[in-house]
Design goal:
The chain is 8% helix and 43% strand. The protein is mainly beta. A five-stranded mixed β-sheet has the order 1-3-8-5-6, with no helix packed on it. It is elongated. The relative contact order is 0.24.
Amino acid sequence: MRKFTSLFIVTLFILPIGGASLIEDPILQPSIPPNLGASAVESYSTPTAEKSDSLLTTSSTFPTGQGSMSFNFKAPSNGTDTIQIYVKNNSSQSIRFILTAPNGTVWIDGEIIKSGQSFTSTYELDASQAGQWFMKFDNNDGSSITVDINTSYEI
């Protein structure tokens, strides 16, 4: 009987009784910070990449109906590189797309991309166009804009 009593007492200290101690109290839960990724409420984002196949590949949401992204074009030491810019409009409204070169020249001025449609353009660039390129998106009604972007070197 003594072995049984000792085993019973040890078991009481090790295992919870009734399972009540296994229920988590929601008041004591740590708060989880909001997601602040590329699709957050930022109206401007600047992901950059070293020269590889991709200059910028992302899905972004601009909740205020306007926003900007940029990519950094690294020029070849001699000659040219061909880049391709792909934008898909995942929004419920048409969006306007503007592409501006590092020197401020607007290369695409107000291309309208309808809901569910995409736009693709290819450019041959040299050292004079190296630097930060800017893509601006907006719509007429201020509703949220969601786009898929793939800007890459053509190999």
